[in-house]
Amino acid sequence: MSLAPRAVLVHRTTEYEELLARHGTHGQAAFVLAGRGRSIDEVAERHRRAERALTEVAAALPLRWRRTRVERADLDRFLFGPEDVVVVVGQDGLVANAAKYLSGQPVVGIDTDPGRNPGVLVRHRARDTAALCRAAASPGGRVDALTMTEAVADDTQRLLALNEIYLGPPGHQTARYRIGPDGAPSAGEPQASSGVLVGTGTGSTGWLRSLWLERGSALRLPAPSDPRLVWFVREAWPSPATGTSMVAGELAGGEGLRLTVESDRMVVFGDGMESDALELTWGQSVRLGIAGTTLNLVA
Questions:
Q1: Domains in the chain, number
Q2: How many Cα atoms sit within 13 Å of 292 on the Cβ side?
Q3: Using CA atoms, how far apart are residues 149 and 29, in angstroms rounded to an integer?
Q4: Which PANTHER family match (predicted)?
């Protein structure tokens, strides 16, 4: 007898909860904010909306289903199962945070603050949870398969991202490396920069787009489901030992970008999750390309 699906509710600590953790009580947090000319009321109201949405979603889950919750900070320690239906309750970015830990499970995005969130990934309301969960668990349920990017290091470390992967120095130093197409006969161009960004169509509305606009780039940004990535080098520095001829490009299926570290240390992280980063040292290499898995977002 097969197991019933498990609903995994993904949420994150609210700004209000963070304020209470820092200041101890509502009154003390309100006092501190008032001293800065701010009010705690708006933050507290957003917290109440998030709590109401979580309660409504939990109540709407099918009765026979198993269920559990995981907070954003614990995602890297949570084991998702193949039978899970992942219900993300929060902001668009929370879907991206969860995506890197999944392997094809259907994802339902519930917007806790309509009008404040763009709603690109959290497309639905809490009242639609029951119907969305049934659709997610059905063989013919319609999903949008969103392209993801991956980084694979030469020591087999692997990292996935829905929006973008950043490779660069851990602080504000300069990263030194060689960059070039994967499989090229030469080691690539030596560069010194503040890092490299490799992103998907989903990420092309955020950090990636800001670089694209700043450069006035002629590259065509991909759509979320396009099997194509774009990449940019940030602030490449020309010198007698470093070049700037390879600062942007695109990657189709099967193509890769290889970077070989020539700094003491570089970090690789996806979708802003700096706490869950790969660390590379001098001489190591990493390949960037399209991931073999997609984020299956319930439409």
A1: 2
A2: 3
A3: 40
A4: NAD KINASE 2, MITOCHONDRIAL, PTHR13158
Are residues 30 and 71 both part of a single domain? yes
Give the pLDDT confidence of 203-229 residue by residue, as tens digits. Answer: 998 899 999 999 999 999 999 999 999
Domain hosting 246: range is: 147-291
